[in-house]
């Protein structure tokens, strides 16, 4: 029997649309559209952020829980079919090793010394938070399991846990109260640099985007530490509007598709929908 929740699918729509939208602004010609908030034309193709999120949604739909051995194979299978989706070099190496039969436990530690602390586990996990929205301790455990296949480093896992918690709280309307939102994320988040940066994010006023971007980072180093805190700050202060939150994200310089995926997957749960005009631009999802 397949299991899914409307919230999980809504988060997937928000994530994939934000991912595809953010990807458009790596193109110089589209940067001029930002001050006018003019949507890029044509079809917006999504990236590895969405590709890996699809595996998580499939996993939860089939099993109702993350089974790392199965999820690793799903990640590797999708990668083998469409390696051109924008996978980072490290992730590509890990997934190719898994595809070739190596145990994910070995592969995830072989590519990076101590494991990856990149933002890849965080970018794909918001639908998981939506699925388990009423069970924060379960979210911590399930998000960690979803992350460790490619991110053996505790910081990479902390980034995934933070985003999954944020998604669950957004689904319960808590973005309307930023300080309570941050307090609940911090309550369950393991000690980490990600947690320390989120504590800093909690104290930054909502009208100071440039300061938040400088202090927290916008994914230019593609680490969980310099990506997730700004995404949560943006969701907390601009989450009353999917459009406003995503335009705020792409006005920055950084890992724009990942910023869009994280913020989109969280904020969609608070506002309850993704704008139809945006969905019409997004490349259709598999299945």
Short description:
This protein is mainly alpha-helical. It has helices spanning 6-23, 28-31, 48-63, 68-81, 89-99, 104-110, 120-123, 126-131, 136-148, 154-171, 178-188, 193-202, 209-216, 228-238, 242-250, 256-271, 276-281.
Radius of gyration: 17 Å
Structural class: mainly alpha
The CATH class: Mainly Alpha
- The percent range for strand residues is under 5%
**Element order, helices and strands?**
HHHHHHHHHHHHHHHHH
Q: Judging from the principal axes of the Cα atoms, what is the shape?
A: globular
- The average pLDDT is 96
Give the full name of the CATH homologous superfamily.
ADP-ribosylation/Crystallin J1
Instruction: Work out the count of structural domains.
Output: 1
User: Mind summarizing the main beta sheet?
Assistant: none
Oligomer: single chain
The CA-CA distance between the termini, in Å, is: 18 Å
Q: Uncertain segments of ≥5 residues (pLDDT<50)?
A: none
User: What is the overall number of helices?
Assistant: 17
Per DSSP E runs of 2 or more residues, the count of β-strands stands at: 0
Helix content: 55-70%
CATH topology type: ADP-ribosylglycohydrolase fold
Based on the coordinates given, report the CATH architecture.
Orthogonal Bundle
């Amino acid at each position: 029997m397949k299991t899914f929740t409307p919230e999980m699918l809504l988060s997937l729509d928000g994530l994939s649309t934000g991912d595809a939208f953010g990807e458009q602004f790596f193109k110089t010609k589209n940067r001029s559209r930002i001050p006018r908030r003019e949507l890029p034309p044509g079809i917006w193709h999504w990236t590895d952020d969405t590709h890996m999120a699809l595996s998580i949604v499939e996993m939860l739909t089939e099993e109702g829980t993350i089974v790392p051995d199965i999820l690793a194979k799903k990640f590797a299978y999708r990668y083998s079919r469409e390696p051109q989706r924008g996978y980072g070099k490290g992730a590509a190496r890990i997934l190719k090793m898994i595809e070739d039969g190596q145990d994910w436990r070995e592969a995830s530690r072989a590519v990076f010394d101590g494991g990856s602390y990149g933002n890849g586990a965080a970018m794909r996990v918001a639908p998981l938070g939506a699925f388990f929205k009423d069970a924060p301790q379960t979210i911590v455990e399930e998000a960690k399991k979803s992350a460790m296949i490619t991110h053996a480093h505790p910081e990479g896992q902390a980034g995934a846990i933070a985003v999954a918690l944020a998604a669950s709280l957004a689904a319960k309307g808590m973005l309307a109260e930023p300080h309570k939102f941050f307090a609940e994320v911090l309550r369950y988040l393991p000690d980490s640099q990600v947690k320390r940066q989120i504590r800093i994010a909690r104290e930054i006023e909502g009208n100071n985007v440039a300061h938040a971007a400088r202090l927290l980072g916008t994914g230019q180093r593609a680490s969980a530490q310099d990506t997730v805190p700004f995404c949560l700050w943006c969701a907390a202060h601009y989450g009353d509007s999917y459009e406003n939150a995503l335009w705020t994200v792409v006005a920055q310089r950084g890992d724009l598709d990942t910023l869009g995926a994280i913020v989109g997957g969280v904020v969609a749960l608070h506002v309850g929908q993704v704008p139809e005009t945006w969905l019409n631009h997004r490349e259709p999802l598999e299945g």
